Amino acid sequence: MHYFLYGIYPYIALGVGIMGTVARYERDPFTWKTSSSQLLRRKQLVLGSILFHVGMLVIFFGHLIGLLTPIWVFDALGVSHSAKQLLAVSLGGVAGVMALVGGGMLLHRRWTDPRIRQTSSVWDIAILVMLLAQLVLGLATVVVSLGHLDGHEMVKLMSWVQGIVTFDANAASYITDVALVFKLHLFLGLTIFLVFPFTRLVHIVSGLFVPLRYLFARPGYQIVRSRRKTPLPPARKSAKSNPAE
């Protein structure tokens, strides 16, 4: 079961997430939206949205850089494993609290306001609950990490992520003995990738990657009206407007 969850399930989740997102963008572009509820109720939205999105962006890029950067790069730069883990714990902890507070405000707003809840789908609420649960697990890993700041647990997680990316058949074995909270955090994160195409989270792709399509796309032109070399003939008067004709 451990090998399935952390050796096979990652490819199922990532495969469905990537192919499902592409299929939705190509086949159902009109569903590609966040369905903003700002017009229904602005209260709690601005502050909650800022805290949630800023925190999540810091966490996302922190995980992306911290886990996918090869270990030898940190060694070459002279960054020790303990220093890297201390940075991840401090920065991730602050960003996690921000995102959790902001997400809690957004969930409270969406759950308690009858009009917003009426216009919300099941996935709108479910994915927000999943993200908040993931944030709680992430903050729990911070508490566990404070008990061993030598960075060895972080190296195991980095080896697992990089092993999955490079199709290492032994990737699951790298995290066999890590704490349970790390395993739950990884499993829920993979599940979020699995359901990603079926939720409003697809707007993340628009904000991060779709603008590149317009930067490198060939310029197009729209002809509003073609020019005529000869003037148009004068308009004829209708018999109705001039009875003398």
TrEMBL record:
Annotated NarG-like domain residues: 3-227
Q: Where in the cell is it found?
A: Cell membrane
Assigned keywords, A-Z = Cell membrane, Electron transport, Heme, Iron, Membrane, Metal-binding, Nitrate assimilation, Oxidoreductase, Transmembrane, Transmembrane helix, Transport
Note the superkingdom of the native organism: Bacteria
Membrane topology per the entry is:
Multi-pass membrane protein
**Family annotation (Pfam families):** Nitrate_red_gam
* Residues annotated as transmembrane: 6-25, 45-74, 86-107, 127-149, 186-210
Q: What is its main location?
A: membrane
Q: Which InterPro entries match?
A: Heme-iron_electron_transfer, NarG-like_domain, NarG-like_sf, Nitrate_red_gam
Question: Which NCBIfam families does the record match to this protein?
Answer: narI
Query: What name does UniProt use for this protein?
Result: Nitrate reductase subunit gamma
Species this protein is from: Sinisalibacter aestuarii
Q: Which gene encodes it?
A: narI
